[in-house]
Amino acid sequence: MDLDLTDEQELISETARRFADEYVIPRVRESDRAQRFDLELARKLGEMGYLGAPVAEQYGGRGLDHVTYGLIVEQIGRADSAARTVISVQTSLVCGSVERWGTEEQKQRWLPQLCSGEAFGCFGLTEPDSGSDAASMRTRAERIDGGWRINGQKMWISLGNVASVALVFAQTDPELAHRGLACFLVPTDTPGFSSQEIHGKLGLRSSDTASLAFDGLEVPDEALLGEVGQGFKIAMSALDLGRYSVAAGCVGICDGCVEASVAYATERKQFGVPIAGFQLVQAMIAEMIVKRDAARLLVLRAGMLKDKGVPSTTETSIAKLYATESAIECANTAIQVHGGAGYVDDHPVERYLRDARVTTLYEGTSQIQKLIIGRAATGIDAILPRSPGADG
Ligand code: COS
Questions:
Q1: Distance, CA 47 to ligand 1 centroid (Å)?
Q2: Which residue's CA lies nearest to atom 39 of ligand 1?
Q3: Residue nearest ligand 1's atom 3 by CA
Q4: Is the dihedral of CA 46, 320, 210, 329 positive or negative?
Q5: Is 122-228 a CATH 2.40.110.10 domain?
Q6: In this structure, which topology does domain 7-120 adopt according to CATH?
Q7: Nearest 10 degrees: CA dihedral of 254, 257, 263, 268?
Q8: pTM, whole model, 2 decimals?
Q9: DSSP 8-state code for residue 228
Q10: How many Cβ atoms from other residues are within 10 Å of residue 273's Cβ?
């Protein structure tokens, strides 16, 4: 594994770091306090080429490799996880799915406006009663003349209130279980589509989060992404990209924790010396650095596998599991380094902790990542619980 970044990768990462420092960080505290989605920032991400960075240039993307995309996401994640969520959802879940599974017409219609930030997209998989068990969704799509009628609800949908297009996963035939799922590209101005803001979140307060409802919503056949029955595969392949992006963002959080802690500990004096001079404080900083570097290497490995075009589901789950758990641990440790100062939002570390907390829940919980990793190692599927006495 070649760990050297190319000159271009270094340059793009450095540019993203500068953009994060100069443009994103100065506005993040106010948006977080106001719990307000920063539309101007989201559009600026498009202008910078950070939405759809790995999408082919012919569709408005930058045609970058996944390693470079991960470097961009890390830098934005260090600055603001809400902005990073815009990139992850738009690029990995939405653009990634349209580019891989869409018809030429669907790609031409949606990708340029999504990559430029002119329009936003959301990913409608999770429902009030269906999270880890994504295939058990209740949203139904029924065949009508020339198209489909969709009824149901989605929950915890990032960008759901600002999106112009929603990827909506729906069951076409419950008897077929996951093989009956279909995915639709639904313009959000379609009659029967509605969204509602979700507030009161622990973190990601300036991220737009919605519940969606579909009430007799009708779409033509051309709205189908891929084929009927491919919905589950589309969702899982999207999550392979989305989990990678979340992991890269969490490397950014770990890095931000190190940076803030070193700055604070070398400045803050107690007993007449900077607290960085105390061994127990250095130990905390060292622990964060080890976690950051290990997470960064796991993300790099997953990105390299994606760039080679080989399966990377397990390595992506390993990166996501480790990076997200590490982000929480680093943020908690960084608050400890900061003492009381870390408990208020003059420093970024309390926000890091609140924002990191969701990353072990969304795009597959840590438990789901462990089950994916364990199944790959043992060949035994421990995902479905078996009742006592059941066969097999
Ligand atoms: N890419 C493409 N196809 C995939 C895939 C992937 N990464 N993972 C699985 N599939 C396919 C399998 O090949 C299988 O295909 P067939 O029907 O042809 O056999 C099918 O999907 C079912 O796969 P699997 O048996 O692995 O599904 P399980 O029901 O065992 O469970 C888990 C899969 C639990 C891992 C999955 O449902 C999951 O990841 N759940 C979490 C959902 C999630 O992350 N939700 C958050 C939403 S975004 S906030």
A1: 34
A2: 364
A3: 233
A4: negative
A5: yes
A6: Butyryl-Coa Dehydrogenase, subunit A; domain 1 (1.10.540)
A7: -150
A8: 0.97
A9: T
A10: 9
Map tokens 């907390």 to a residue.
Answer: 357
Instruction: State which H helix or E strand residue 166 sits in.
Output: strand 165-171
> Best of 169, 179, 233, 240 to mutate for ligand 1, by most ligand atoms within 8 A of CB?
233
Domain at 233-377: CATH code: 1.20.140.10
364 C-alpha to ligand 1 centroid (Å):
10
Would you list the domain boundaries of the chain? 7-120, 122-228, 233-377
Give the residue, by CA position, lying nearest to ligand 1 atom 25: 381
Provide CB contacts within 8 A for 50, sequence distance 6+: 16, 72, 76, 87, 91
**pLDDT values of the chain reduced to their tens digit, one per residue, 392 residues:** 888 999 999 999 999 999 999 999 999 999 999 999 999 999 999 999 999 999 999 999 999 999 999 999 999 999 999 999 999 999 999 999 999 999 999 999 999 999 999 999 999 999 999 999 999 999 999 999 999 999 999 999 999 999 999 999 999 999 999 999 999 999 999 999 999 999 999 999 999 999 999 999 999 999 999 999 999 999 999 999 999 999 999 999 999 999 999 999 999 999 999 999 999 999 999 999 999 999 999 999 999 999 999 999 999 999 999 999 999 999 999 999 999 999 999 999 999 999 999 999 999 999 999 999 999 999 999 988 765 554 44
- Annotated catalytic residue, options 99, 218, 350, 363: 363
Q: Which atom of ligand 1 is nearest to the CA of 240?
A: 7
Q: How far is the CA of 129 from the centre of ligand 1 (A)?
A: 17
Residue nearest ligand 1's atom 38 by CA = 132
* 14 catalytic residue (yes or no): no
